[in-house]
Amino acid sequence: MKNVNPKPKCRLLTAVVIGLVSVGSLCAEEKSWKDETVLISPQGDQTVVRPLEGDKILFRNADPQLAVEWGMANARTTVVLAGQYVMSDRIDIARDDVTLIIDEGAEISLNPKTEHTSITPGFRGRNGKLYPHPALIYNHGRNNVRVMCFGTLVGPGPIVFDGRNEKRTCGIEGGLLLVTGSTDGSLWLIDSRRVHVPLMAPDSGIDAVLVLEGCEDCKLGMIVNLAAKPGGQTGETVDLNSSNRGIAIDRLVGERSQEIIDCNGSHANVKEIVSVGEPRKLLCFTVRSGRRFTSRPACPDRLDVWKATVLEDVADVRRRIEVPKLPDALPRFTVKATVEVTLEDGSKKVYTKEVEIDVRDGGVKPKKKK
Predict the structure, then answer these.
(1) What angle do CA 163, 156, 183 make, to 5 degrees?
(2) Is 213 buried (19+), middle (13-18) or exposed (0-12) by CB count in 10 A?
(3) 191-230: per-residue pLDDT in tens?
(4) What CA–CA distances, in Å, run from 311 to 93, 169, 185, 243, 308?
(5) Which residues pair with 356 in a beta bridge?
(6) Would 14 be classed as within a structural domain?
(7) Quick check: helix, strand or coil at residue 75?
(8) SS3 at position 310
């Protein structure tokens, strides 16, 4: 085991203010979050929307996409329960301050027989051409949106937060993105500010777990990219594609990665990097790699890493995920991811991240722009 560039740890003292709330206001708050929560589930060849309590059907449609979008248009919290959902097109998030939770047993995919909306403009390749970039869940310019996926997202571009606008500013302010289920492709944040990504630990290795372009002041917790097969390799854990500023990362865990972090025209501060097995590259700066989506200006490359550990002689690595039983766990629940690495000498290294979610608080509201 190697320790690279160790730095002294710092302690941050946080003041917590506890206020008194009357019994009446607590009851009103409880009623409010229940009234603003809906459940999505399959029923025969239909997808139905029900309230959190009771069996009344609020909306039904043969197309699951329309059911999910109806839920988010009419409720603050939408929970997609276990089942298969084949969408005719992507799910568009149409308003600020909503939460979408995809349950552990839910699988969302696009119908191959329908025409799908792609992001416009699309992904610009190094040859300068634009290529279509589909998405399953698409947030275009909506603030304080929280998306949590414990289930399965099938297809490229599973979740995209897209804040691009004509002013070339961060068009998305606030929000949360959390993924512990299965995805086929990278999660994207584009031109977004103060989005919190506390945990990403999909169940199979992909090219890059999370890609950021044109983002500011985003806080990332533990981002994990483990190989799909024992002893296998992964691509990148985090790709700072271009023009990112003030990105704070707690921990990156990658298995025999092409690059655990790729930093291009960006600035990030990383507390810890853990390589499971020898990485092909630990860090990477790609000179003049070019922007793909954002039109925001790049900044000088700067990557501050406090601690990097290479676990060379790995015998086994296991990923354990603990997610809530929905909807019973609402409104407050904990998500936990554990990466346990067993070395050839029998010793173990364990890396854990717990995230507490409360659907009642809605996250930090963005400040009004002057």
Answers:
(1) 100
(2) buried
(3) 999 999 999 999 877 889 999 999 999 999 999 999 988 8
(4) 41, 40, 26, 31, 10
(5) 334
(6) no
(7) coil
(8) strand
Cβ atoms 162, 133 nearer than 8 A? no
- Domain that residue 244 falls in: 31-113+121-358
Q: How far is CA 67 from the centre of its chain?
A: 22
Percent of the chain as helix, strand, coil, to the nearest 5 = 5, 45, 45
26 domain-assigned: no
Burial per residue of 57-72, b for 16 or more beta-carbon CB atoms within 10 angstroms, e otherwise? ebbeeebbbbbbbbbb
Q: Is residue 12 part of a domain?
A: no
Please spell the DSSP secondary structure of 242-311, one letter per residue.
Answer: E--BSEEEEEEEEESEEEEEEESS-EEEEEEEEEES--S-SEE--TT---SS--SPP---EEEES-EEEE
Give the whole-angstrom CA distance, residue 282 versus residue 240.
Answer: 14
> Is pLDDT at 285 greater than 70 in this prediction?
no
Distances (CA, A) of 316 to 146, 260, 272, 277, 342: 34, 19, 21, 10, 5
Let me know if residue 366 belongs to a domain: no
Q: What is the mean pLDDT of the chain?
A: 87
Dig out the tokens for 38 from the structure. Answer: 């809906």
Q: What kind and span of H or E run contains 69?
A: helix 64-74
Amino acid letter, 302: R
